[in-house]
Structures
1.
Amino acid sequence: MITFEKFTMDDSGPIYGQIVRYVKRGIVAGRIENGDEMPSRRVLSATLGVNPNTIQKAYRMLEDEGIIQSHAGAKSYVVLDEAKVEAIREELAENDIGAMISALKQSGLTREEGLELIGRLWKE
Amino acid sequence: MITFEKFTMDDSGPIYGQIVRYVKRGIVAGRIENGDEMPSRRVLSATLGVNPNTIQKAYRMLEDEGIIQSHAGAKSYVVLDEAKVEAIREELAENDIGAMISALKQSGLTREEGLELIGRLWKE
DNA sequence: AAAACTGTATTATTTGAGTAATACAGTTCC
DNA sequence: GGAACTGTATTACTCAAATAATACAGTTTT
């Protein structure tokens, strides 16, 4: 069973998007694997203090991307193969790192200045 | 006169926030300096294709942070000293880089893996 | 002085995100 | 088989963001 701690979600943007990203990052990090059981909409709703409809919206998006499978009445499961995981890994890196690079460029930092600053701020 | 190209604003979140960030990045990058004249609300509204009220909200925030000055009827001007610029520089780095680091950590990357990947994706 | 700009303020409307409260049908489990 | 779970769907409501359409008073500019 995948565990969602009470609001790891401190990102930006809509909550359902944050949940989708949280799951994808969990997959890439190996915390979530093929065959894992998703918490029910109601349970996750209570855990995160978020409306069931919002959870359903996130789950629907995950299903549309082929990451989970839902059958009416039964529990929902994670469905993954190595290719999918790799695709998600690249999508996340592209998004997270790409956004920062374009922000730092807009701030006038060169590649070397940027890398130096990141290295200094990332103290594990 | 500060120039806003037709939608450099492809960020996320409210438009007024994007405008505020755009100005701050311009300041840090040296594109915007003390004494610079801001485009009028109406002009920027037309340039960006955004409602005047939304522009006014952004300008109000900039004024509240002491970055611009507005006097009813007259044009608005940028007001900066070196200390302010440095404060903005640190705020932006903290935000942009901090967000990415916490995202990459959540994806399970170590500091070394992260820095290596960023270096590879940032091809100037 | 008059025209053409400025900033500022107000009211109404639309849209998307999120909440709230149910309802229903399918499944799991004892 | 019945209870207790599942996923799914619907309708109504609130709220913030953004738009739209003005209006007014102060400033530049000619």
2.
Amino acid sequence: MAEKTTIKRSRQRDAIVAFLKTRKDHPTADVVYQEIRTIIPNISLGTVYRNLAQLSERGDILRLPCDGKMDHFDADIRPHYHFICNRCGCVKDMELPYANNMDELAGNTFDGIITKHNLLFEGYCKECM
Amino acid sequence: MAEKTTIKRSRQRDAIVAFLKTRKDHPTADVVYQEIRTIIPNISLGTVYRNLAQLSERGDILRLPCDGKMDHFDADIRPHYHFICNRCGCVKDMELPYANNMDELAGNTFDGIITKHNLLFEGYCKECM
DNA sequence: TTAAAATTGATAATAATTACTATTTTCAAT
DNA sequence: ATTGAAAATAGTAATTATTATCAATTTTAA
């Protein structure tokens, strides 16, 4: 039952995490791939996808769904909201306080269990205005 | 400049809108396709995608992005929030009041223009609990 | 009725992501 | 340090959802 699975470190995964920590712009999988390739030239794109998925499932990074566009990834795991520019596609942090009680509040009027919420703002960033 | 484009009605598009209006569960494009096929057997999947895109761009229906899963479509165009079940994937309406001032509020702490926001709740529906 | 433009069905193409598999790497127990 | 089982990888193939293409059909204003 309890699928015990030992996690072993890898140079590739360490590099992905280290790279994400240097960036504030929440790169996509393909950007991570291109950048890591400058360090580990023969890393596979599948490896990048696999590790981004594993890391976000473990809670070591955040996966940011962006309304149909490609997911972005964030090494800052503190819950916070994001903005996506409809022109250039950049993703930025919002300074709004995170609504910790939002799920509980929403649950009061919902027949089921609410485990989380995702709030994404859209518009145009200052560079695109 | 102003791309004036006359819209002509079509049996296929009328059928898609009519179908969506009979449903409260916000179907995906492929569900729309399967259902419309019982009325118009040789309708093309491309036609369904094309019309769902056109209709949502015109504001006649809502496109609901669902955190990486397939988009769902809603004939009820009054702004409201949604929930997606992480087990069965169903999408349901939330009864929460829509925050009309959210974009303006968020704009106060953001250097750019915010045109809209998308709030999606996740968890388990009552059938899946 | 007619003709220009929108729409369609059928199919091909694309883009993003996942699956597969033989090989390599990691690491706990010797 | 050595070993061996499990995890991870590179490279590639396959899949999935969606969009593009285009000749033929349909719509609608004049």
